Amino acid sequence: xxxxxxxxxxxxxxxxxxxxxxxxxxxxxxxxxxxxxxxxxxxxxxxxxxxxxxxxxxxxxxxxxxxxxxxxxxxxxxxxxxxxxxxxxxxxxxxxxxxxxxxxxxxxxxxxxxxxxxxxxxxxxxxxxxxxxxxxxxxxxxxxxxxxxxxxxxxxxxxxxxxxxxxxxxxxxxxxxxx
Length: 179
What we know:
Elements: H1 2-11, H2 21-31, H3 33-36, E1 49-52, E2 58-60, E3 70-72, H4 78-81, H5 96-107, E4 112-114, H6 120-127, E5 148-149, E6 155-156, H7 158-171
Parallel strand pairs: 3-4
Antiparallel strand pairs: 1-2, 5-6
């Protein structure tokens, strides 16, 4: 019974701690059973830390903008968010779990979102190296295929920048970056 499992998981704060991704996926799949059929509201998922993320952790479902947004995206958009694997839901859109999570995201009642160009303006600071924040111009070393390392040693590759630029060229009317 999905309502019972959701209540049981939320009842004791530590109950969801230390779940493996496989366990989280199995529990989430069960907890979504009555949500897709519109017998229950996606809001009933708030407080469940069961969403598989690209960083191999489980993400917390919460209210819109009360929690960090977690993004579902098309395979072609995944490389744009891979620098923030903690925000990228690891469920293919064409499998049953991905379709169920997309249904929840479309409701607008949780922090699960379908990635859109309009979200890029708010995400961009999290995707770029902290050393670039506040700069109008940043440079890469000539011929540097690895890009620039940021404060935690992770780099911005030239190919990632080109993918971002290509995405912005395609979706520029939906990406309000002037703000």
